[in-house]
Amino acid sequence: MRFRKPVALASSVLAVTVVMSSTTPARAIQPTGYAFSGTQVTLANAETGGPALTPGLHRTQLPNDGSPRSFTINRNQLRTFVASVLTYEKNGSNLLLADDHETEVKITSPDGDDCDTQKETLREGEPAGIVVTNVGFDDDEKLSRNGYVGSTCREATTLNVTVAHTGGGAGSTDAEILITDEPKGVGDTGAAASAAERTAIKAPAQAPKDEVAPGTGFAGAATLTPGTYPVKLKVGARIFYKVRLDWGQRLAATMTVPAKDSNFGSPIALESTISIWSPQRIFLGVQPKDYQFSREASMSANNSEVKTIGSYTAAVRWANRSASSGDNGEIAYATVPFTSVPGWYYVSVNTQPRTPVSSDTPVPATTPDVPAELSVAVVGEAQPGPRLVNSAGAEVAAPSAGQLSVGNGVSQDDPFPWVKTGLSAVAILAAGAAVVWGLRRKA
Q1: Is 215 in the same domain as 237?
Q2: Which residue among 44, 228, 253, 364 is least enclosed by CB atoms within 10 Å?
């Protein structure tokens, strides 16, 4: 299953607002890059084989000529997992790409069956940026978020994952590989998010607090707590924040750009896009019924018109993984089934010159930072979740009720809340019948 482009509040609301000042000096327009993290690994220089990756964040390099690199997944250790491959596509210090950049991720069985293949492309002339490609396996073949695959893929105890990258000239491209696992829910796992919990919501603005420097990657995403924070949108940059969600809670991120009363007009046409990502780095799309409310703001040159954009999630519930794909409300197709775990949810904001850039209106050497207001709200009371166990029946810990983001600045906490407590027992998980899904999204 691949993501398609998409687009009544609970009893409590916690809100965060980011306010940006327009009194900032002009800055050279260059891509700011991506801050890679993770344990360095060397993948096999082949279609199959390579190290067996375990849950956690890994870092590697991929040749730009399309040569395959591979690693393996031990199904005796992982039943339900997501493998998220992130690359940062660039063209030196230039803002725009000079050629097409593509990342392909493929899962195959030991018998050579193609279990799933996903690829993403950034085209020539598009701004430099990240590409996130997700593939995975689910222990429950009956879930609506899964697609059908051959029996050899379901029954295999070892899977090969092959990654190939093209574009960017000679040399190699850095990549992050995040492996996450979902323990099994037992007992009363509750119901999926209701229709009211799939409606569009906006985060209310709050009084400003001190500035919190944003991260430039998922691993370094800055933690936000309820309040208002001044930051700056730099042209050519993507910034990252994270907010903690518990069972039954929703996230809303709403941005006003440029900030009200700032009288800011960019010297060039710009686009700002806001996105929300799950703890597994799955892009969570929305489809609001209000056609004037979307994830993207298009700003004309020298125009100070204020626009409001935003994104939001369904309520986090275990049963969302079996939610019907035919009734998503104002949540995008294939998104509800992946809003199924508590933990850190990520908000990214990407600001770029509007493309294509006309030859008679070239990008200037410098441009000022864009003032804006970003509001983030956690909606709903934290609720008890299901019991989580491994295949041996041993209980797996989940975040405690009411645990939300705390503190200012950059936090390096685990991206998946049960990595330390639950995945220490992952080696004794038994392999089960599995069904592949393909989750992909170019950011």
Answers
A1: yes
A2: 364
Report the C-alpha gap between 235 and 366 in whole angstroms.
Answer: 9
DSSP codes of every residue in 8-46: ---S-EEEEEEE--S---EEE---------SEE---BSS
Does any domain span residue 425? yes
**Beta strand pairing status for 227-230 and 13-19?**
parallel
Containing domain of residue 72, as a range? 39-188+416-441
Report the run of H or E that residue 122 belongs to, with start and end: strand 114-122
Same domain, 231 and 364: yes
* Residue 405 in domain: no
Question: What is d(CA 386, CA 365) in angstroms, rounded to the nearest whole number?
Answer: 54
Give φ, ψ of 401 to 5 degrees. Answer: -60, 135
pTM of the model: 0.86
Structure tokens at 343: 């933990």
The model's pLDDT over 69-82, given as tens digits with 9 standing for 90+, comes to: 999 999 877 778 88
The Cα 145–Cα 142 span in angstroms is 9
Q: Bridge partners of 177? A: 58, 85
pLDDT digit string, tens, across residues 326-378: 668 899 878 898 898 888 999 999 999 886 555 556 667 788 898 888 888 99
Q: What angle do CA 276, 132, 346 make, to 5 degrees?
A: 25
Q: Per the structure, how many domains does the chain have?
A: 2
CA-CA distance, 68 to 45, in Å (whole number)? Answer: 6
